[in-house]
Amino acid sequence: MANPVLVEILRGEHVESVHRGAVAVCDAAGRALLEIGNVAQPVFPRSAVKAIQALPLVESGAADALRFGDRELALACASHRGEAAHVELARSMLVGAGLDESALECGSHWPGNHDATIALARSGGMPTALHNNCSGKHSGFLCTCTHIGLEHQGYVSFEHPFQATIREAMENVTEAPHGAGNFAIDGCSIPTYAIPIRNLALGFAKMTTGERLSADRARAAKRLLSACMAEPFFVSGSDAADLSLMQAAPGRIFVKTGAEGVYCAAVPDLGLGIALKCDDGAGRAAEAMVATVLSRLLNADEALSARLDELARPVIPSRKGVPVGSVRPTEALTG
């Protein structure tokens, strides 16, 4: 059975495109608050789970040894846009561990931010691994490896001991298996694992409440999510949806996008985790989905709910800046 249409794209008043998907919202005990579509469907969360992958950075003591603050921890959980502040902070993290960008095994690409790309090209420069949107995560991995005395070369491979550490954290938090049977390679070369959408929602409910986690892991989880909410620019970048959503309610919303239309989120006040997947991988539709779900969950705050609903319904302009269409959540999503 197909997932329902959750988002429509309008050209004028006519529906031009539709996006199907699935959404799960649950508490740390696994009780479902909202389920739409096939939430048992395994999906690759991609970058949406970087905060869970960053747990060893805090738990190992590496973050404290390197005196990392909220910005460094946020960047370790980030899909940044390669802006100067992102690049320099990733570089600084590596320097603290006695490393440089040559240790990064994430590959390189041009910045995701248009102005940063133009500035780099005008300077005659070329993108390095520091411009990779995952360079903060990889810097965190490298800092952890050096702190615990682990050889960092090949840290991205499934067989490397550090990836086993990440698998343990992911399995403990999401309560879903992570192994050779559901493993593939992410865009930044590390392993990624397909697990059910409902398990991703459960994982972020546990991350935000600390329930059913060890005391050390609960503290690390709270520290990482708090850092992301305190420094959302370092989680994403200028004009990013993650930035806009977390700025709408500072300290009350954590969101993290993943490639191919995945979002994970948490609402600390309510102790809830959220996970969703847009079937066709459209980021624009996934952004509308997560904003709509957050608007529903936070409807007791009318002003905030209205702001989130506004973010879920962006106007589509022409090349001259004239409104010609819009994004619209469907009734299946709005409830």
Q: Could you please describe the fold and organization of this structure?
A:
- This protein is an alpha+beta fold and 335 residues long.
- The protein has a single domain, classed as Beta-lactamase.
- The chain is built from 15 helices and 12 strands.
- It has helices at 50-53, 55-59, 62-65, 70-76, 84-96, 114-122, 135-147, 161-174, 197-209, 215-230, 232-235, 241-248, 283-297, 302-311, 331-334; strands spanning 5-11, 14-27, 32-36, 42-43, 183-185, 191-193, 195-196, 254-258, 262-267, 272-278, 315-317, 323-329.
- Strands 1, 2, 3, 8, 9, 10, 11 and 12 form an 8-stranded antiparallel beta sheet that branches. A two-stranded antiparallel ribbon has the order 4-7. A two-stranded antiparallel sheet has the order 5-6.
- A hairpin with a 5-residue loop joins β11 and β12.
- The longest helix has 16 residues, at 215-230.
- The two termini are 20 Å apart.
- The model has no long low-confidence stretch (mean pLDDT 97).
Quick synopsis:
The protein has helices spanning 50-53, 55-59, 62-65, 70-76, 84-96, 114-122, 135-147, 161-174, 197-209, 215-230, 232-235, 241-248, 283-297, 302-311, 331-334, and strands at residues 5-11, 14-27, 32-36, 42-43, 183-185, 191-193, 195-196, 254-258, 262-267, 272-278, 315-317, 323-329. By secondary structure, it is an alpha+beta fold.
